[in-house]
Amino acid sequence: MKLTCLTVIAFFLFSCDKKHPGEQSTSLLSNILSITDNEDKGIKEIVNFYGGSCEYSIGTTISTDSGTAKFFELKLSKSDVADKYANIPEFTASNLAYTFYKNLKNENRNYKEIHSVLILNGKEKYESKYTLDQLEQIATKMQVFNKAIELIKTKNYDGLKAILSNESYTNAAKDTLIANLKKIDLTFGNVKGFILFGARFETHDGFNVLNIIGAMLRDKKNNQVSITIDLKPTEDKIHFLDYNFPQN
Hints:
Blueprint lengths: L1 E4 L6 E4 L12 H5 L4 H14 L2 E11 L3 E11 L2 H5 L4 H14 L10 E8 L3 E8 H22 L3 H6 L8 H18 L2 E14 L2 E12 L4 E8 L7 E5 L6
Parallel strand pairs: 4-5
Antiparallel strand pairs: 1-3, 2-3, 3-4, 5-6, 7-8, 8-9, 9-10
Helix pairs in contact: 2-4, 4-5
């Protein structure tokens, strides 16, 4: 049996048109719930990307199995970006948690979990919880993802082939993938940048993987990208690369 208890009754609302009080505020609420500059930075980054409003609170989960665990909760609503991808909410939820987490320094010792809550299209509610270990896994595998994006950007196709898993791609399949990537480069133009949309833990052909999605920014036309990376700590290989987002 698990009992969840919010230790902080009040919450803050942070939106594009309101100044976030942060921990420097002298308001009554800031005396109840104080956050650090790094936590404040993470929340600002979320709102700058998604728009809408972001409420945050701190709570404690009390479990007969694992004891007490402190968590930080982020609740995003009225976001056109999140609403656009309402069919794959787990990616948005993970991106909220990861964006907040990557801005933390010593603060990550304060929490066991980061919770994400989405209010989509004004009514649909989606909730997800991420342990710090899971968020660290995302941070680690993001290095592989960023490497793949950079290899595509610089047209280093041999380098990209080297990080494609031999267990998922035959040599012929690797050649076909690279040929298709070259065609898309000619059609869509050179890669100029990338926007992260989120990640999802999955099982792909029997492998435990992390599926990371986002948008490639190009000269002529931007494109979606989905890259599935092996979750084993010692395995930095790609099991699947596609220019379409996965569906539920």
